[in-house]
Design goal:
Blueprint (H helix, E strand, L loop, with lengths): L2 H10 L8 H13 L6 H38 L1
């Protein structure tokens, strides 16, 4: 069942009870046990990929900034 229907259905029922705090925490712990954590090798690989992407985007944005800055100076310096 999609989440939106579950929320609408829960609100629409007059006898619906909320989940208690202990039940909520048990459900959270059960979901956390299902999480598959990356190995150290995967973590290092992901870190390197992200850093390369960030540096590439910084270079691209810097080049655009430099180009637009020169263009603006040419237009307004007349």
């Amino acid at each position: 069942m999609p989440d939106s229907k579950a929320i609408r259905g829960a609100r629409g029922k007059p006898g619906h009870k909320r989940t208690s705090i202990p039940v909520f925490y048990r459900q959270v712990i059960a979901e956390l046990r299902k999480v598959v954590y990356p190995t150290q090798e995967q973590l290092v690989t992901y870190f390197i990929v992200v850093m390369v992407f960030v540096v590439a985007m910084m270079a691209f944005v810097s080049a655009l900034d430099l180009g637009f800055g020169k263009l603006v100076f040419k237009v307004f310096a007349g």
